[in-house]
Amino acid sequence: MRVLSPGEIMEAEAMLKLHFPESLKVYGCVFNINRGKPHNLEVIVDSWPDFAAMLCRPKTKGADDREGDFNIHSIYSRDAHSLRTLLDTPGVIDWGAYALLAGVDRNHVGAVECVAKQRGVHTHTQVIMRVLSLYSATQLQAHDSAPGCRVQPLRPEHALLINSTWKYGGDAHSLNSVRSYIAHHPSLCVTLEEEEEEEREDEEEEEEEEVDEEEEEDGSESTAKSRGLSQAPVARKRRTKRRMRKRRGARSGTPVAWLLLYQHCALGLLYTMPRYRRRGYARTLVSRLSQQLLEKGYPVYCFVEEGNDASWRLFRSLGFRDKDSYRAVWFEVNSRDHKH
């Protein structure tokens, strides 16, 4: 076992590129370390320079972000035996604490289970992911921006909104991670032009008026009574919308869709607000950010949960490709409430 020096981490980056897509997650960590991005990681290998297993783990325990909270260890291995040997080395994994082993090759999960079983440690497969990657601009199927929208980088004040919709977010630790992603890594969001937003609200008001007219044509006593009771709230709602339009400048630029980059360089947190879906915003964001990343020399890839066919089809339609025989596993060691 060896903890790599800064110079060795630079060398490791070039070596890892030879083993895509299996090495992409660890490569993304190393890529950002080598470019001076803020991190709390150290890189460990089974041997050097001819390594067959590499692990990026938190340097300091208990960091106040999601990566520290979940004690995330990113793993690459060429074969199950090398992974088992590395994990079995004293001091590599704290088997008495909770850890999330991320990116384990599904073909090598047995090595993790074997070492854990020897120590009487509970393990659990959290999720299995497809890995989709894009290696060149010629591979990318470019997608033009939808009319009436602006595409721009996210800002720090958007972190609360993004954290509130993130599947793995919602608490203070994840909020700190989102803030870090926005501050230190590329990101994009869609905001609507003022005219586009007003047009959307006009459509909604017209739909409400159509419903009211239908009720008026229905001559039943119960409908008339219910209409009489509901007219005032509906009128107030419309007046509120008009007032909000006047205040548009105070909240203009609020994102309706966004895409970020994790600290391991994977595209992530792709989300569109429900009322703005089916308008091509996700395709616009993936296409735009992928182009920017390729121009800057970043790896371009993402993890899509197995079974999420809609996301898989989206990325495939834009030129991303995955290796059918490869899956990355997020593997839990101990339970989240486990104490030493």
Automatic annotation (TrEMBL):
List all Basic residues biased stretches: 235-250
| Regions crossing the membrane | none
One of its Pfam families is FR47
Q: Which SUPFAM superfamilies does the entry mention?
A: Acyl-CoA N-acyltransferases (Nat) (SSF55729)
Q: Point to the regions of Acidic residues compositional bias.
A: 192-220
Molecular function in Gene Ontology:
N-acyltransferase activity
Q: Does the keyword Phosphoprotein apply?
A: no
**EC?**
2.3.1.-
Instruction: Work out whether the entry's keyword set contains Transferase.
Output: yes
Record domain N-acetyltransferase: where:
190-340
Annotated region described as Disordered, given as residue ranges: 192-250
**Per its UniProt record, what InterPro entries does this chain match?**
Acyl_CoA_acyltransferase, GCN5-like_dom, Glycine_N-acyltransferase, Glycine_N-acyltransferase_N, GNAT_dom
User: Which of UniProt's keywords are assigned here?
Assistant: Acyltransferase, Transferase
The top EC class is: transferase
**Family statement:** Belongs to the glycine N-acyltransferase family.
- The protein's name in its UniProt record: Glycine N-acyltransferase-like protein
Lineage, highest ranks first:
Eukaryota, Metazoa, Chordata, Craniata, Vertebrata
